[in-house]
Amino acid sequence: MNKTVAEVMTPNPITVTPQTPLKEAISILVENKISGLPVINETGNLLGIISETDLMWQETGVEPPPYIMILDSIIYLQNLNRYEKEIHKALGQTVGEVMNDKIITIEPTESVKKAAQLLHDKPVRRLPVVNDDGKIIGIITQGDILRAMAMD
User: For residue 80, how far is the Cα from the chain centroid?
Assistant: First the structure.
């Protein structure tokens, strides 16, 4: 299969902004039977992704980090910055507070083989497809790749 990402991707994906309330994002995911949404700014540039995994923090809450007490001092055994991020995700009310901003993207001219390799190697379920200006033009998932394989 020598197809490009542009030939296989889902064009014009549904998007949200950082200001979108979480309840609205959850409704969009459920109504459209999708597991993640690209987060864009007012000019259409990709800022992050919000996924079912990010939203699970709302229900599961946060476990306090393990610590020990020595002479009335608390010594945390884990990174407190990570704990603060977890609290922020658990208490967040907007997409921007909960989204993942460390995203892996792909260009439309790349091969489907490269997209498949990225999806396999990285812990992601979707790859936003961005143009040279950083604007999202599509999204490619494992399902898109499997459909393309079935049509060959």
Answer: 23
Question: Could you list the residue range(s) of the whole structural domain that residue 27 is in?
Answer: 5-151
Per-residue model confidence as pLDDT tens digits over 104-151: 999 999 999 999 999 999 888 899 999 999 899 999 998 899 988 888
104 by Cβ neighbours in 10 Å (0-12 / 13-18 / 19+) ranks as: middle
Read off the pTM: 0.76
Looking at residue 122, what DSSP letter applies? S
CATH number of domain containing 80: 3.10.580.10
Query: Could you tell me which of 142, 141, 139, 108 has the C-alpha nearest to residue 14?
Result: 139
Domain count, the chain: 1
